[in-house]
Structures are given as structure tokens and as C-alpha cells.
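Pasting two entries for a bug report.
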Amino acid sequence: MENVSFSLGRALWAFLLAMLGSATGQPLGGESVCTARPLARYSITFTGKWSQTAFPKQYPLFRPPAQWSSLLGAAHSSDYNMWRKNEYVSNGLRDFAERGEAWALMKEIEAAGEKLQSVHAVFSAPAVPSGTGQTSAELEVHPRHSLVSFVVRIVPSPDWFVGIDSLDLCEGGRWKEQVVLDLYPHDAGTDSGFTFSSPNFATIPQDTVTEITSSSPSHPANSFYYPRLKSLPPIAKVTFVRLRQSPRAFAPPSLDLASRGNEIVDSLSVPETPLDCEVSLWSSWGLCGGPCGKLGAKSRTRYVRVQPANNGTPCPELEEKAECAPDNCV
């Protein structure tokens, strides 16, 4: 009887140890466990689609022209997040979103990897010197670190960026072969500028990360404010492709930087976003002039604040005249 009890006790103890061991390897929040083969390598290709045709309002042409910062990302587990919508960004991400400085963000990622064992690898890709162009990198993921996050700063901008938050490249027992996602602008919540070239204007108190849409922020001065659109066209795209060959055999897509300046010429896929004319308020009426005993004329003017583009609403008359009684008749 004692031997039976002892055997049952050992079996129960082994069962508990097994359960505890498996629990420590599971993601937080009751998420599915990745059971794919140990490691997988992916190419990541970031494609900028920020063209003057798709985003004509206040499109930056110089000092500096429209471009993208370097890409910075990490492969991690569910107990780490680089950024998250409706949450506050870290100091490191604030520096990256506002000024493109990556040092503090990289130190935060490194600290998370050392303390929590939540980051498997860090990856980066070169900057794109124009609004439309590509940049590529490679990354490695692990069953316990199958999530991928990255950020790319919109240049110039107050604190705007695009990116991915915790994309899972594992699906049950297999690695995904390819993932393609459209990207849209986000506000880091640390600077209150409305336009691409706004001067520094710190948001106090700090706000959370929000997606910028065609109607939010709902201020006509905002560079992404297009009230006629239900939604903005994607400003960028990211493609993950699982690599079968060895890492050394991988060759990133040829960008032909010398002849084309990293530009993507694909007019069929570029949406034409209509930009309506915007005019100022009317000026005050001028003096009423004319001969004595007869009606005179006065006028007022307004000026064009935004020129129409892509079949947007044309500008109205910029001068208006009206009859009046002369102030100083001759």
C-alpha cells in the first residue's frame, strides 16, 4: 500500500513539474503556443508609397524632402512591446519618432532582452532617401519569440511614424510563408505639430499613440486632413518572406540607386488623392469710389492658401465687387 502511495505521489509530482515547465514557456495572455520548427529566417522589405500624387497636401519637396528614416525592429515574445496603439511610448521611441535617434530605443530593447529574455534578435534596414522607395533586411524568429515589431519615422514630421506591433509569424505548428501588410501613419503623442514641417511643440501632458486618418486630427491645417476621403491610402507597405536558402545566399531586391534614386515607378498602383482648393477669408471692403450723385463701386479680395490637385475642387473667384455710395465723391 505504501509503495502504491509512493508511486502515485511521484507521478503527481512529475505531472506538476511538467505543467509548471510548460507554463513558463507559454506566451502571456493565453495566446496560442508556437510549435513550429526551432528557427526561421525572413526577409523584410519596406516599401514607401508616400508620393505627391497620393498625398498632395503640403507634400515636402525640400529642406528636407519627403523620406523615411532607417527601420528598427525586434523579434520578441508577448511580454515585450516596442509600441502599442492607445498606449504611451517609451522615452526611446519618443526620441526615435521626433528626431530619428535610435540609441535610447536600442538600449531599451537590449535591456528587455537581458532582464526578461523577451527579445530574441534586433534587426535594422537603411533609410529611404525619398517618399517612394524600398529598403530590406533579414531577421530570425524562434518559437518562443515569434512576434515581430518595427518602426520607421516619417521625415519630416513632428513625431509621426509607421510600423508593426507584435505581428506573429507563427501559425500553430508552422511558420507563415509570406505576410504583406499596408501601413498607415501614427502619432507618437509627444509633439502637437499639425504639419510635416511644424516646429517643436511638446504635447503636455503626453498623449497615447493614435492612428492618423483622413479626418483625425480634424483640423484643416493637418497635413493628412482629406475630408473627402473615407480613409487614407496606405503610405507604406511591408512584406515578410520566409527564406529557404542559407542567409549568405540571400540577395536583397536590386534598387538601382544610381539611376533611379530609389524611386518606384508604378503609376497604376498610385492612387490620385483629390486636393480641394482652399482660400483665405475675404479682406475688408475697400473704399467706395465714384462720381457724386451716382452709385460707386467697392471691392474685396481673398487669396489661395492651397492650390487644387488631382481633380480637386477648383478655386472660386478671388475678387468681389459691390455697388455703394461713394465716400469721397468727385
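Entry 2 (this is the one that rendered wrong in the viewer):
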Amino acid sequence: MAARRRTSSVTNSENPPPAITENRPTTVSSPEDFRLAPPKLSVIFVISSLLCSLYLYLLCFHYNVDDELKRPILINAGLSLVGFFVTLKLIPVAARYVLRRNMFGFDINKRGTPQGEVKVPESLGIVVGIVFLIVAIIFQFFNFTEDSLWLVEYNAALASICFMILLGFVDDVLDVPWRVKLLLPSFATLPLLMAYAGHTTIVIPKPLVSYVGLEILDLGRIYKLYMALLAVFCTNSINIHAGLNGLEIGQTVVIAAAILIHNVMQIGASVDSEIRQAHAFSIYLTQPLMATSLAMLAFNWYPSAVFVGDTYTVFAGMTMAVVGILGHFSETLLIFFLPQVLNFLLSLPQLAGIVKCPRHRLPKFDPATGLLTGTKDGTLVNVYLRIFGRKSEKSLCIHLLVFQALACAFCFLLRHFLAGWYK
């Protein structure tokens, strides 16, 4: 979901168009005349410096990471950097193509202003997804051999992510009802579930061992059900915590940075080669995700020149679910997703049909002041505005991203204080 009003040549009977349907003038007469605003590279430089500096310090200086692991991680980082620049170049090209197919929207949070009358290209998340897959596939040449134990799971992970990109793009084109969206990740996880050969056990928290009578519990097939449910949650939670320029991608890069820091900390602290390889595996997929997402954020930061569409949100959620599952840190991942969990709980009455759910659960925009006011809809965006008062869209997005970063920091503190006692 994004802060947009979709315009297409096909109307979905289960998703009626919004109340405002008048023809709007636009500043674009044809796709050929379209000129995309330049990327906000200075903003990306600041964000990437804040998020990546600690990770690079831990990887290169703080921990004595074996060259056998550090080398492929750095190669992957180099390929990811190439992916960043390729994504930057492809987005303006793809924007013109989607406009030709009338895949654009109007920014609802700017309605009543000149910016609200501009056609904004939509579904540009397909560019991020394609570049991500190409980088991840090319990386296999540098790291995996034909008899590699991780090759099957790596390709299964890419198959699940690719499947989710396809389904997300189908949703952008056909405007699939949200009840169907909930089921789509279940199908996309099938390649991963079928190829998964890792453990299906969980470690019982030490305070509960005396009650359960076991230190390790084998869940068997129930563990795979848990994996599928985690993928469904991560995929949809990014999608519903949205509606502001830069929020979807912003929360993704913050969580991705936390995942990278967590992985390198576990690699540095562990002596078990299997655990170290699992966390390195997670890094191999997270670095391309972060690099390509930062390139998209350069165009999606306020004021947004493109919309990412559901293609990006479901792709990002599935990728993070995959790295959490195969890296064996799903509990930590859920704490990183704390704002998304809170947003889901706030949204549950409307999603369950207990409370009336409008098509766009967005704040109310005042064109005279340029400020957003929270509505009664159950989203974290609206609740934050109701508690802290009216804010501009850019300011609100920054506040929510800071909250996301604080949630990730809380996770690291929690793991530190519970280490040795909880597990």
C-alpha cells in the first residue's frame, strides 16, 4: 500500500475506486515528455552512512572474521554496489514504460496541491526485484560450487523471492483483493519449504526447562508451518505499514542494516562453522536488498518521484523472512519487526472486518498548512499523529523511521541482557 490513488484501464469489482473520481489535470502530457526528478543522492549518502558505518566497522576491524568468510562477503558487497548504480540507471527508463501502460497514481497526501496533480509512475519495485535477483545469481559464480551444501537452499530462497516478485507485480496490475494477498506468500514459500534441510528444533528458554522437561524440542513439520506463517507476516506487515513517501523502503533499509549488524556479530562471536556459515548466507541476500533499496529510496524519498507498488513491499518482506529462516534468527527478526507487529495489532479489528475498513487508511491532509492529521483508522501512522499531533509527511516519515531504528536497538539490548539467562 502506498499514499496513492491508482489509475488504470481496468476496474476491479471487489476493489471499487475511491470516492474522488473526477478527471484531474496533470503536468505530463505523454510518457515521451516525462522527465523524472533527479535522485536525492545526498539524502541516500546520509542514510547509508548512518546505517552502514557500524556494520562495516564490525566486519572489517572489530571482529577477526576468517578470510574464507570475509572474502565472499566483500565480493557480495561489491556486486551489491554495482546493483545500486544499475538500479539508479534503470528506474527512469522503467518509469517511462509503466506510464505508457497507464500504471501511475496520484499522491493522496498531496491532494489539493500542484504536486497532487502529478502522475507518479507506479510499481517500480519490479526494477529493484530484478536487479536483486541478477546480483544474487551472479554471486553464485564467486562463492558456491556444484557440491556446495548451501547451493540448494540458496536457489530455493531465490525461487521463493522471485515467485513473490511475480505475485506482487500481478497484484499491482490486477489490484488483487487483500484477502487473496494474505495467501500469496504461502504459495511463494513452497520452494523454500520443500528444499529446507535444516534443523526443525527450538531451544527451550532456561526458565521453562524445569516445566517442559526438555532443553531442545523437535517440532518436525510444525516448524515448517511456522516458517510459512513467518513469511506471510513479514510480507504483509511491510505492505500495511505504509502510506508515506519513503516509509516502505525506509523501514526495509533500517531492518536490513540491523540484520547485517546482527549477522556479523554472530559470526564474530561464534566458533561453530555451521552457525557462522548460516549468518554469512543471510548477509549474501541482505546486502543486495539494502543496496538496491537505497537506489530506489533516492527516487521515493519525499517528495516521491515514483511509487514502489506492492511488488516492492512483498519482495522486501519475503527476502527478510527468508534470511531470518535460513539464518536461524527468526525470534530476533520478529523483534526487529516490532513496529510492524504493533501496526498489525492496531489494524487487526479493521482487517478482520470487526470495524469498517476504508480502502485507504491514510491521515487527513490539509493543503493550506501541508500537515497531516491522524484519523480513527487503526494504523501506527494515524495513532502516532493522534498522540504527538499534526506533522508534515516528511517529518512523520523520519519520526517513524527513528522509531524503527530504536526498536532494532532495543532488540540488541534485549539480547545482551538476556544472554546466558534466557537461552
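Dev reply: Rendering is fixed now. As a check, the viewer should reflect this: The longest strand covers residues 4-7.
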